[in-house]
Amino acid sequence: MAPIVTDNIIIRLVSMDDKPVAELIRDTINTAYSSQNSWTREGDTIAGDRATTEMVERLILEQGKPNHLLCAFDGSIVVGTVMVQLEDMKPNEAEIRMVAVHPSYQSCGMGRRLVDASTEFIRSLGRDVMSIRVLENRTDVMQWYVRLGFVATGDRMNVLDESLLKVKGVTFLKLSRSI
Ligand SMILES: CC(C)(COP(=O)(O)OP(=O)(O)OC[C@H]1O[C@@H](n2cnc3c(N)ncnc32)[C@H](O)[C@@H]1OP(=O)(O)O)[C@@H](O)C(=O)NCCC(=O)NCCS
């Protein structure tokens, strides 16, 4: 994809050149997911870090085989991320994961821009359904996705490691939209 440049922010696929900033990418994801300064966060429901350096480095190394990692950069600052998952998906579908905006950049439309960029990217792959899984107790972010056009499908998925759940019994709900 061609980089999307607005203001000073560039949203683009990461490449091997970004391996030195893997830790910055990890930190942005983990801060967004757990900081009390995020207006919505997963850390209240699931304990532990969302991303590790190894996970980010693997995504960079295996970029496009088949998943993709897009990041938003403000100069050298990693301000946001979105992972496009193609693995284990139907041929016409892609799931977005790790949608994260550093708390200092939230509530300014950055999250929407990341979802828009991933939408364009998924379309460019010839896929026309986009999905997201959201913890069922997170009504604030659920409503945000609904405002972006996502609709609950009724499908539920268990959290991979239920021992990390701070709110017992919570599952993911799948939302999707045609693009
Ligand atoms: C979810 C997240 C990506 C949104 O990023 P963002 O940059 O704040 O998103 P935007 O600025 O595009 O949109 C913010 C919206 O939330 C609304 N909002 C801001 N504060 C809010 C609050 N306290 N409660 C509810 N909505 C709020 C804004 O009004 C805006 O609404 P609009 O899109 O209808 O105008 C970001 O909060 C984040 O990284 N959260 C932690 C990680 C996470 O939970 N990711 C989602 C996993 S499913």
UniProtKB/TrEMBL annotation:
InterPro entries: Acyl_CoA_acyltransferase, Bact_Acetyltransf, GNAT_dom. Residues 9-171 form the N-acetyltransferase domain. Gene3D superfamilies: 3.40.630.30. GO terms for molecular function: acyltransferase activity, transferring groups other than amino-acyl groups. Keywords: Acyltransferase, Transferase. The keyword Acyltransferase applies. This is N-acetyltransferase domain-containing protein. It comes from Phycomyces blakesleeanus (strain ATCC 8743b / DSM 1359 / FGSC 10004 / NBRC 33097 / NRRL 1555).
